[in-house]
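Anyone up for a design puzzle?
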């Protein structure tokens, strides 16, 4: 039976992947900083949790030991103390890849992001690009996946904006809401990972995972508001003003937005066309209109037309 270690298996995409792998018969080790009982206990017997911070050499090696497949989904949107973007996205990625190579792992899938580039405005994207290079150097046959915005019933984006749209009288449209996204369904992402693992030809490749359609940030927010029948004012805020304001706010713990998150919106998150896609793995990505309305119905405001 396949033994798979999933770093980041406790996160949004990771939970769906772990469930899929376990149902397909794999024995799955979820490497997390917060194993049960503080975290959510595994629902299937084939899922085991181990404690590992991606910054910790010994813990990473122990989590990888005995696995023939490793998937690294660890990523952050805001740094905290020693968990900087470089420490997590670059050094952590290198640590996982080097351990996997050293311990004879057959398959490594490393999850990056669309927008990853050495010249990107956001450090999150630059560190993801550095992470890809570090993984490639340590484990040349690794497959690298760059998803666009990922949606699903427990996602961050649609649930987060639905909750805010319901609560707040106004929402900012940073950069005028012109950033383009190609939202992709989490189960399609998971099916893509499974196809990568099943196809030897995927080794050493970079995949870009996007959905069937491109939307601007404004269109996505308008869609959320229409779905939940909320009418907050959508206020265009130029990038310079959003960066200034978020730069001031980010000194407070739990700030709603950091300057780097604003900078992430300065580049479009759509597939480039120069790397293979979900379709090349035999996965037909589903439209968000067929999936998102159902789970956003929980936020719907009654008494609005
Ligand atoms: N969701 C999207 O729309 C999207 C789009 C493009 C790319 N991605 C990429 O896909 C990956 C997964 O995204 P997601 O949305 O599932 O993220 P998520 O829900 O925020 O989960 C992040 C995961 O990273 C783990 N993690 C964070 N710091 C860690 C550390 N120091 N050591 C070990 N584990 C650590 C967390 O585990 P614990 O807290 O349990 O330790 C958690 O399982 C990320 O790399 C992200 O950049 C996501």
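Challenge accepted. My sequence:
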């Amino acid at each position: 039976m396949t033994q798979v270690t999933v770093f980041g298996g406790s996160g949004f995409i990771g939970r769906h992947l772990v469930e899929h792998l376990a149902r397909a018969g794999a024995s799955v080790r979820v490497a997390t900083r917060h194993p049960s009982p503080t975290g959510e206990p595994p629902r299937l017997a084939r899922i085991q949790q181990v404690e590992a911070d991606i910054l910790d050499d010994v813990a990473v090696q122990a989590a990888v030991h005995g696995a023939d497949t490793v998937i690294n989904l660890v990523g952050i949107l805001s740094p905290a103390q020693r968990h900087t973007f470089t420490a997590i996205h670059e050094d952590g990625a290198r640590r996982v890849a080097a351990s996997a190579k050293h311990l004879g792992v057959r398959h490594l899938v490393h999850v990056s992001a669309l927008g990853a580039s050495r010249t990107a405005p956001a450090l999150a994207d630059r560190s993801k690009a550095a992470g890809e290079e570090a993984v490639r150097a340590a484990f040349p046959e690794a497959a690298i996946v760059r998803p666009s915005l990922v949606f699903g019933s427990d996602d961050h984006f649609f649930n987060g904006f639905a909750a805010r749209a319901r609560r707040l009288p106004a929402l900012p449209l940073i950069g005028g809401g012109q950033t383009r996204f190609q939202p992709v369904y989490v189960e399609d992402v998971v099916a893509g990972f499974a196809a990568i693992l099943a196809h030897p030809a995927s080794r050493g490749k970079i995949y870009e995972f996007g959905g069937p359609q491109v939307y601007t940030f404004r269109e996505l927010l308008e869609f959320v508001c229409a779905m939940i029948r909320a009418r907050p004012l959508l206020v265009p805020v130029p990038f310079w003003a959003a960066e200034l304001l978020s730069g001031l706010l980010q000194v407070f713990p739990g700030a709603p937005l950091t300057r780097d998150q604003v900078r992430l919106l300065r580049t479009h998150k759509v597939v480039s066309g120069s790397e293979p896609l979900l379709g090349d793995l035999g996965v037909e990505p589903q439209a968000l209109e067929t999936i998102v309305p159902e789970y956003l119905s929980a936020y719907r405001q009654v008494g609005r037309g």
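A detail worth pointing out: The pocket of NAP is lined by residues 7-8, 10-14, 32-34, 53-55, 73-76, 83, 88, 111, 113, 147, 149-150, 156 (CB under 6 Å).
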